[in-house]
Amino acid sequence: MTLSRPRQLLVYGLLILGGLVMIFPFLWSVLSSFKPPAEILTLEPHLLPQEPTLDNYRTVLSDGAFGRWYLNSLLVASLTTASVILFSSLAGYSLAKFRYAGRKIVFLGILSTMMIPAEMLVIPWFVGAGYAGLDDTYLGIMFPGLISAFGVFLMKQFMEAIPDSLLESARIDGAGELKIFFRIVIPLVKPALASLAIFTFISNWDAFLWPLIVTSNSEMFTLPVGLQSFAGAHGIEYHLIIAAANLVVLPVLIVFIVLQRQIIQGIALTGVKG
Prior knowledge:
This protein is an all-alpha fold and about 270 residues long. It is built from 15 helices and no strands. Helix 4 (about 65-95) packs across helix 8 (about 150-160), helix 11 packs across helix 15 and helix 13 packs antiparallel against helix 14 (about 240-260).
């Protein structure tokens, strides 16, 4: 269906207006991070800083803890993403391409875990972490997210579309299952893997509740938890809090800008793949 020129202009105008409404708070935050304290608290606010300064960022970055929090978040998000990709693809391959007793029950059991809110699992996680001595450790922060039910579901759905005849031909040629998995299956599901990796990394980078509960040592804080601690320590120094918040968002923003095509493709694929 082709829209007439006036309708196209109307649609584009509404989309641009909606985009401006969505981006305005973030734009205000970024510009405010370059304002001195007096401009932040003025009764006549201005969008653009009247006297731009980098002092806010210098003050935040001079706090040595921020670098440690960045390292913690990067390590947790990266290792968790690698684990989810590995185990989700292996489980998805097993459920999609092997026939064995109880396969459907196992898959339904995995899907059923997606119906349980994470808040209901926090207490069992905390008790288990305490018994295992995982408090204030990287493994303690990561273990609830090392395997993803959604990741297993996504990979299974994609791998089911791979022709069985292709895999059988490889087996006839003498290829083992691991070789088939890494040389044939993985290259064919790269779009799904890229989407899963992006979503997993961002969700773990932004995670707040569980890292807050399982860590008490400030050196083990991830960035969201560290930002809350930083905001509590600096009270009404909003210029510093805004600058710190923008530093937390910056890596996610870079990931989105660089990989926006894969993110949009992943959203589309997870919505239509069956």
